[in-house]
């Protein structure tokens, strides 16, 4: 049985649907305060981080052998007065990890699950369709200038990866217009859409951090990303093949085609 | 005689005033399309980039021995049909440099001046008062958390320096909220002020790029920077000692004190 630990957003619902389609047994545990979408009427365990140890025990009792962390869990807080007995021994590790940033928190939770004997699997393992094959499936196609912009964006993201910063970058005409930080992709695109004095056109690149554990917290794009890129005046979106989840492929491509943007799944 | 090549902003006016105070001979040449402030009624040569060669000849004829580039010259364009005879031989270098970004363009212009026998001097040489001494001259003082934020911001800027990106970074509680790109510091702060879901507080760090030629294009702060940082909800501003120009020290400190922000001139 697979335990699907659900954070915020659409990914948990997509993975639950993929599990159902495959006929494999699974159990959804939803973290309070980080509402997942698309779980519909499925029975879910709801848990608090303060009871993580108890949840872990229950999942093991129910026969869980694998676990998948899906959805965003940004800056959770721990109320020490609510920590239960089974979670107490885990608190120092979780607390230290939270101070290290979002990636650190996820790594700590993954390590705790692994030590309990669970195998951690990635969203791409459960729903391979979320990882798009290399190529440009849109009507609009990138040109030579976009190739240069993609190289520059990739270099910026690579430089920042050791600092656990940056899964997105906007480049136009060789100039870096924006670098994604904590407020995220949608915020970055909206800031650009509000107006700036840089060149028009260009692209958004999304890629996982170099060396990132691809079993959890892969960057994702959705229809909103396409709309945001269009509003920011960009020509297209580049995602790293195998490293970025496309949360609704058909809708993403339809949106990109209707707005004349390219989507480039780059090796 | 010193030739002051003026781009946009307040720096050219401040340097012209400093030259007048010192009694040394100087000549201002203002690039069209990049209006300098505070030059008042001083006689200035106005020039276009297409006539750079002619300007250079004239400055040499007038006895120029030194040159200082001051003020922002962002993304200038060259109209090939307007290039004059003396500038024609320089165009390939300028054009290639423009493609390399703002720093590249400045480096090319500096190299052209140097090859003509002019010594390039920095704004800090002309007006040492623009470089503030180490310390925290405001009433508000940074705490241990701000020290951590400053270290993280410095690490981000150092990672990006080889890519000719980033002279500013906002960090709060160890989280990177924003990284300055082409649209500049004021734009970055205004974007944060418009709202984001990251932590409050934190600081703006401004520093020159590692390895940057400190004779031109040093980052600068002014009263607007303090206002922008306050509007973005930050606790203070950190500038690298010797590497960031303070365009009006008294006004900056008064503004910071009135808004409760610290200004930290960090070694």
TrEMBL record, chains A, B:
Span of domain LpxI N-terminal: 2-130
Gene3D superfamilies to which the protein is assigned, alphabetical: 3.40.140.80, 3.40.50.20
Domain of life: Bacteria
Transmembrane segments: none
PANTHER family to which the protein is assigned, alphabetical: BLL4848 PROTEIN, LPXI FAMILY PROTEIN
Record domain LpxI C-terminal: where: 133-264
Pfam family, one: LpxI_C
Protein name: LpxI family protein
InterPro entries, per database record: LpxI, LpxI_C, LpxI_C_sf, LpxI_N
């Amino acid at each position: 049985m697979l335990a699907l630990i659900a954070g915020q957003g659409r990914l948990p619902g997509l993975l639950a649907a993929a599990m159902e389609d495959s006929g494999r047994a699974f159990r959804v545990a939803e973290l309070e305060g980080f509402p997942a979408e698309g779980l519909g009427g499925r029975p879910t365990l709801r848990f608090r981080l303060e009871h993580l140890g108890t949840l872990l025990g229950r999942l093991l009792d129910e026969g869980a052998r694998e676990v998948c962390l899906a959805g965003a869990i940004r800056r959770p807080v721990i109320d020490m007065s609510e920590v239960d007995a089974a979670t107490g021994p885990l608190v120092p590790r979780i607390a230290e990890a939270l101070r290290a940033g979002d990636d650190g928190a996820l790594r700590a939770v993954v390590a705790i699950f692994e030590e309990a004997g669970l195998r951690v699997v990635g969203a791409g393992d459960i729903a391979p369709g979320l990882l798009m094959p290399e190529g440009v499936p849109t009507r609009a196609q990138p040109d030579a200038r976009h190739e240069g912009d993609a190289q520059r964006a990739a270099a910026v993201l690579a430089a920042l990866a050791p600092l656990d910063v940056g899964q997105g970058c906007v480049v136009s005409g060789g100039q870096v217009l924006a670098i994604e930080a904590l407020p995220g992709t949608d915020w970055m695109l909206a800031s650009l859409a509000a107006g700036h004095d840089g060149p028009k056109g260009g692209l958004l690149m999304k890629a996982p951090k170099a060396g990132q554990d691809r079993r959890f917290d892969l960057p994702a794009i959705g229809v909103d990303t396409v709309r945001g890129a269009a509003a920011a005046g960009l020509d297209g979106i580049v995602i790293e093949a195998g490293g970025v989840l496309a949360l609704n492929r058909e809708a993403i491509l339809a949106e990109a085609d209707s707005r004349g943007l390219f989507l480039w799944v780059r090796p």
